[in-house]
Amino acid sequence: MRRWGLALVLVAAAGGRLAAQSKISTKFADVIMEYVIPGKIYNLHSMRSLPYRVVNDSAGPTDVSITIKIPQKDQLKPGYEALPDPTWLRVVPNKLHLEPGEHGLADVILQVPVDPKFEKRHFQAHILTENAEPPFSGATTLAFTIAVESRLRFSVKSPGPEQIRRMQKAGIYQMLNFTLEPEALYVPGFFAPGARANITKQTGSRLSLINRSSQKLAFSLKSVQPPSGIGPAAGYVAAPDPSWLKIKPEGFKIAGDSMKSFGLELDIPDRPELRGKRLAFFVQATLEGREIPVEIYSRVYVNISD
User: Fold this and answer.
1) Do residues 140 and 250 share a domain?
2) 99: domain CATH number?
3) Residue 205's pLDDT is what?
4) Of 27, 127, 221, 227, which has fewest CB within 10 angstroms of its CB?
C-alpha cells in the first residue's frame, strides 16, 4: 500500500524567510510489506521500484538528512509495534543536497535479524527527512527546520494485520497452518540437457506439503517465474522457463493433520547456453477455493552437466 503526497512540515525558529517558502516533500508516505523473511536483505528501490524520493519545493537550495526513527506509542497503527532496533533499516545515502525543484533519491534497505522471537510480529518504523542544521557561525540567527515523516510497516513471516482481519472475516485464517518443505531443495548430481529425468526416482529428492490444520484443504502446485522479492541462492540463476520442472500431481487435496509428497521431473532442452548452468526453479503452492489467495514457495536447485 502506498499513500502519496503526505508531507508534514514542522516549523521551528525562523530567520528572515517565511515558512511557506521552505518546503520538502516525499511520495514515500506509508509503505506496507508482508511475509518478510528474517536474514533476507530487502532493497525497496530494486524490489518494488520504490526509491525514497525527496523533493525540494522551496525557492532555495537545501541540505537534508534522512534518519530512522522509532515511533511513539500513540503514532502506531492498529496491530503494529514499534521497531525494536533502528539498525534493521538503512538509508543510502542518508544526506542529500538539493537545488530548488530538484528530486533526490535514496535506497531504503531492510534486514530483520534471524531470531524466532520476531516471527509472526508486525513492526512500524518512521523515516524522518529534515533539512540539515547549518554550520555554526557564531552569530545569533534564526533558521527553519522542515521535516517530512514517512511510515514503513512490515510483517515478519506473516500477512499484515489488515490482511489477517480480512482472512478472519472470510473464515480462512485458522487454515493458514501449512508449509511446503524443504524451503530450499538442492538436488544432488548433474542432469544432461535434452534428456527427460525423473528427479525423484534418480535421487529421492521430493517436495512435501504439510497441512497442520484440522480441515481438508485443496491446493495447486506448479513451477512459476520468480515472485517479486524472492531470488536464487548465490551461484544459481533462475531457469529461463519454469515449465522445465514438472510436478505431479499439480492439483490435490490434503486431509487435516497430514502430509503429501510430490515427484519431480526435469526436462531441460539441449541448448549450448544451458550446459554447465546451475538453475533455480520456484515452486508455488496455492490454497485453492478461497476468496483471498494464499501462496507459499520453495526453491529447487539443479545442476546441468557440460
Assistant:
1) no
2) 2.60.40.10
3) 95
4) 227
pLDDT value of residue 269: 96
221 and 141 within one domain? no
Q: Look at residue 4 in the predicted model and tell me its pLDDT.
A: 32
Q: What is the pLDDT of residue 293?
A: 67
194 and 91 inside one domain: no
Exposure string of 187-220, with b = 16+ CB inside 10 Å and e = fewer, is: beeebebeeebebbeeeebebebebeeeeebebe
- Taking the CA of residue 286 as centre, how many other CA atoms within 13 Å lie in the half-sphere pointing to its CB? 15
Ranges of the chain whose pLDDT falls below 70: 1-22, 48-49, 132-145, 167-176, 290-293
Shared domain for 92 and 40, answered yes or no, is yes
| Domain span holding position 42 | 19-161
